[in-house]
User: Which sequence fits this backbone?
């Protein structure tokens, strides 16, 4: 055995230098990342803020969002502009806009997240199977995605929600169920690329079963783009929820949702523009946050990145 | 089946060429087109040939990493091509493969330890995590790497070191046969010899049998007992390594040998320079596949494929010159 | 007579996230008219950087920090871009390792050859085309009249490399830089290309700077060799002397570690360890971490190029001892 052992090329000097170098790396890693990818951090902070607002909505909102305050309306019955008590003003039913915007984040986030997770859970396995097994299975799955992608998505969702009856959970189910083809396609593309790597062949040669190869070896190696896609999806799905609610087939009143607030505000935009500004701004920031985070993550995961 | 550990019989791998939206099959790439050879227990069988002649495809279809489209492979007397998936997975622990690309063949998300333990987990070789770890450390020592770097990821190792990790992984299941697909081609000359020596040592220590695939003739000659030369998916010559190099029979082998640059400026020799390029295996020439480039080409060569014959004891070739 | 190309003491660095790191340092060699000089060494030792420095084709993050490169007396380092462009392709031509990527896939072969003829030789279209056909014939491409109108992807690797050589030869350069011209090719095709290069060199009395990692190619093609290791020239001399009397321990190890076709060796001698990386260069002799003759002095102080015989030098302290012993 001794003879087999060939010299390990580690001279003390080299090792020391290496260790010193890596120590430096650890402590500065965060700062360096921050400097190289400010997007991730800006987006991350926006998303984090949104999550905190949604989770602690009950604590953060000054009032109950559904209470129609008698003092929330001007004498002529018009909504109140932002003021000392109702800091973002009130709507035409005398409800506090700030509280409604804060509670609205819950709906947005819930729909955005759940819909993306549903797409992820349907799309990923189908994409993996399609990419890995190829042949007939692949053709069938891909043709189905073609059909889905060829139809106008929004019309589909509208139809599905109409059939299911509008409610928060039905909205995210509809968006999620119809959103899987994109996930499936991207996952499939990744699988096709990763499958060719010799480490996958090596696992097969070692006797690994299909399940192990698919979920222990291929899946972790395609996680990065899938995470990016899901992040971007959350933002898009939030937008979609607003559109549906705006059209009146999404979240039903009185549940506060940015989309329905926009719809309600639109009628009185002339004399109560704050009813559009605040929910609109909230939506903008939330979607932007997820997009920044997603794009940032894509950069971060890019193996050819230069740091 | 005599004393052969591995016996490949008329192995064929034809990849369909598909065209159009309907992906109809319009032809076949005859990547491996009827290759036969035996490998005795404990020997190293070399497989040489130029790029695209089907060496990798041969290696992978022996292990059924791709399903061969024809022929049989016998391993230890068992017909590998007939085994069910479950039986196949069991037998995989006895036949292993080492890949050409030390960068692509290790999972970038596994540490060295995970890479080495994976085969043990797949084949349920050890009960406890501690035993697996101990074995992984042993394996690293066997291939000459320090165990202190077990928790590192592949990208932190050099090409030669990764190739050692790949070899250690193949050894983890105590295989009898290792198919080494160009294990040193991607390595620098000075590191190449380290890995060749390691393979040599391991063979002696663990009584391994190798199928050693390479395009570098001097490397194959150095490590192999017997060598098979492939051209366009077919075996054209097979002999003991010394007799192949001293007395190559097939015109292709002769050209191949004479094309290798010799690192000695004072050596003067006659050089055979082949005309033309390697034809495509999707559209091979008629008769003897080598005839458009062969300097001894005769009329019969253009129409009839030569037979695979034992021309001298242990020395096979497929060429009309020896009829 | 002065040399055709005179590279002296160049240091080329690249900007990385750890600042400027020198890829090659103190590289000097000369090349006479009609001579073939080989540069050998392992991957990453700086062979390509050397050739790109001569051509002034370094990527934007690289720069020549020190030294001069004289071509027929002109210092290329300080030449303006437009003057350099007149030399490139005209007086110095270059062919690359990857025949697949060095031709433009969207233009026909003929156009790619005639381009430089029209640029440097002021030929018109039909003259250039006729010359392109001639050139293709001269590099041994069959059916040259048809091939001029083909796109590169229709050609095999060996054919593409011939086309590259045809392009390089189009303006009858005085110097051809060939960066691993046959590494991506099969041995039988490599033999064809090397044969072609030998023929062209003889016909045109052209100097060649041949970069390779294959000592066999060096032995067959070159008059003189420069052996590089970790960014430095470690040994140089005439091919015959270097093969007869390799003196730097690295060169010796390299020569011993290639399996020989003509003899049977039980075991290959090998050089332990790996090439040090750019950022972790030892401060003394760069080969010290792998050298069997290493001494305290080697670790502390870097050797200079020391004479071995006439026109043969090696960067190793052992050369000094020999002198003392004599
Ligand atoms: N999956 C595939 N589908 C279609 N053709 C294939 C496939 N794999 C290989 N081929 C073709 O089969 C032929 C043989 O390929 P193979 O990889 O076995 O050659 P090789 O001898 O290993 O070459 P190299 O020295 O370049 O590794 C080639 O022409 C190749 O293009
Ligand atoms: N554009 C670049 N930016 C940063 N570093 C570079 C760049 N080009 C080359 N280098 C570094 O310079 C060193 C020498 O590279 P070079 O390409 O000259 O090697 P080589 O000897 O040609 O190797 P090979 O045989 O692999 O072609 C390497 O360590 C490489 O990482
Ligand atoms: S069979 Fe004919 S063409 Fe083929 S190798 Fe022999 S002599 Fe040449
Ligand atoms: S200087 Fe010292 S370490 Fe460097 S090659 Fe010579 S003997 Fe070896
Ligand atoms: Mg191969
Ligand atoms: Mg290079």
Assistant:
């Amino acid at each position: 055995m001794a003879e087999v052992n060939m010299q390990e090329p580690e001279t003390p000097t080299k090792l020391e230098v290496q260790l010193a170098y890596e120590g430096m790396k650890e402590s500065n890693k965060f700062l360096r990342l921050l400097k190289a990818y400010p997007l991730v951090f800006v987006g991350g902070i926006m998303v984090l803020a949104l999550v905190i607002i949604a989770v602690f909505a009950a604590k953060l909102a000054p009032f109950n969002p559904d209470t129609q305050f008698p003092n929330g309306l001007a004498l002529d019955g018009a909504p109140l502009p932002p003021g000392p008590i109702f800091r973002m003003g009130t709507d035409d039913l005398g409800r506090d806009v700030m509280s409604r915007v804060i509670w609205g984040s819950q709906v947005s986030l819930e729909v955005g997240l759940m819909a993306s997770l549903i797409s992820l859970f349907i799309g990923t396995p189908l994409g993996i199977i399609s990419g890995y097994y190829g042949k007939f299975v692949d053709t069938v799955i891909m043709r189905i995605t073609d059909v889905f992608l060829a139809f106008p998505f929004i019309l589909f969702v509208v139809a599905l929600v109409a059939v299911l009856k509008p409610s928060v959970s039905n909205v995210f189910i509809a968006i999620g169920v119809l959103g899987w083809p994109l996930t499936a396609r991207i996952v499939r593309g990744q699988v096709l690329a990763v499958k060719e790597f010799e480490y996958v062949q090596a696992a097969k040669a070692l006797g690994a079963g299909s399940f192990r190869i698919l979920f222990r070896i291929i899946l972790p190696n395609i996680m990065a783009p899938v995470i990016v896609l899901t992040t971007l999806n959350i933002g898009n799905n939030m937008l979609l929820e607003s559109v549906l609610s705006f059209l009146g087939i999404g979240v039903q009143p009185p549940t506060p949702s940015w989309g329905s607030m926009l719809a309600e505000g639109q009628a009185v935009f002339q004399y109560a523009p704050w009813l559009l500004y605040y929910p609109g701004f909230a939506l903008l920031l939330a979607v932007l946050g997820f997009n920044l985070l997603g794009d940032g993550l894509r950069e971060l995961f890019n193996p050819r990145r230069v740091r | 089946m005599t004393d052969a550990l591995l016996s490949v019989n008329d192995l064929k791998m034809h990849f369909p060429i598909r065209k159009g939206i309907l992906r109809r099959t319009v032809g076949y790439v005859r990547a491996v087109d009827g290759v036969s050879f035996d490998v005795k227990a404990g020997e190293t069988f070399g497989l040489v040939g130029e790029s695209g002649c089907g060496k990798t495809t041969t290696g992978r279809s022996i292990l059924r990493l791709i399903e061969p489209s024809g022929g049989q492979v016998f391993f230890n007397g068992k017909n590998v091509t007939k085994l069910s998936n479950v039986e196949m997975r069991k037998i995989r622990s006895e036949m292993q493969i080492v890949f050409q690309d030390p960068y692509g063949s290790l999972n970038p998300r596994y540490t060295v330890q995970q890479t080495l333990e994976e085969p043990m987990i797949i084949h349920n070789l050890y009960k406890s995590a501690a035993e697996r770890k101990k074995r992984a450390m042993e394996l690293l020592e066997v291939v000459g790497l320090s165990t202190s770097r077990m928790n590192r990821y592949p990208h932190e190792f050099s090409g030669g070191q990764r190739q050692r990790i790949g070899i250690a992984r193949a050894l983890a299941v105590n295989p009898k046969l290792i198919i080494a697909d160009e294990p040193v081609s991607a390595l620098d000359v000075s590191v190449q010899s380290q890995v060749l020596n390691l393979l040599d040592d391991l063979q002696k220590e663990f009584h391994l049998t190798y199928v050693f695939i390479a395009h570098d003739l001097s490397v194959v000659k150095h490590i192999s007992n017997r060598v098979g030369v492939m051209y366009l998916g077919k075996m054209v010559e097979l002999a003991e390594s010394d007799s192949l190099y001293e007395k190559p029979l097939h015109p292709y082998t002769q050209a191949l040998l004479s094309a290798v640059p010799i690192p000695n400026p004072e050596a003067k020799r006659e050089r055979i320079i082949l005309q033309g390029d390697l034809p495509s295996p999707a559209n091979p020439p008629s008769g003897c596949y080598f005839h458009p480039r062969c300097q001894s080409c005769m009329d019969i060569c253009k129409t009839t494929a030569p037979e695979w014959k034992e021309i001298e004891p242990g020395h096979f070739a497929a060429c009309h010159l020896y009829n | 007579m002065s040399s055709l190309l005179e590279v002296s003491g160049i240091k080329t660095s690249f900007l990385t996230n750890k600042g400027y790191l020198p890829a090659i340092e103190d590289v000097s060699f000369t090349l006479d008219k009609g001579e073939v000089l080989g540069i050998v060494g392992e991957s990453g030792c700086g062979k390509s950087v050397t050739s790109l420095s001569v051509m002034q084709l370094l990527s934007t993050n690289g720069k020549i920090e020190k030294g001069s490169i004289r071509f027929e007396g002109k210092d290329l380092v300080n030449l303006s871009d437009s003057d350099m462009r007149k030399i490139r392709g005209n007086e110095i031509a270059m062919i690359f390792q990857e025949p697949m990527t060095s031709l433009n896939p969207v233009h026909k072969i003929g156009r790619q050859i005639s381009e430089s003829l029209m640029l440097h030789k002021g030929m018109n279209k039909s003259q250039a085309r006729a010359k392109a056909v001639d050139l293709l014939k001269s590099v041994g491409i069959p059916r040259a009249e048809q091939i001029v109108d083909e796109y590169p992807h229709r050609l095999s690797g060996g054919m593409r490399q011939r086309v590259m050589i045809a392009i390089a030869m189009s303006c009858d350069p005085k110097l051809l830089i060939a960066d691993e011209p046959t590494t991506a090719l099969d041995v039988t095709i490599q033999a064809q290309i090397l044969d072609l290069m030998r023929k062209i060199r003889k016909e045109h009395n052209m100097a060649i700077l041949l970069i390779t990692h294959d000592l066999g190619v060096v032995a067959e093609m070159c008059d003189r060799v420069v052996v590089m290791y970790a960014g430095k020239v470690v040994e140089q001399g005439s091919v015959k002397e270097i093969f007869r009397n390799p003196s730097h321990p690295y060169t010796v190890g390299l020569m011993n570690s290639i399996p020989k076709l003509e003899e049977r060796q039980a075991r290959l001698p090998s050089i332990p360890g790996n090439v040090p990386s750019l950022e972790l260069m030892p401060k003394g002799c760069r080969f010290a971490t792998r050298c069997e003759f290493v001494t305290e002095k080697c670790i502390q102080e870097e050797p200079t190029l020391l004479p071995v015989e006439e026109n043969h030098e090696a960067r190793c302290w052992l050369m000094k001892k020999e002198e003392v012993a004599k």
Notes: The first helix of chain A runs from residue 12 to 36.
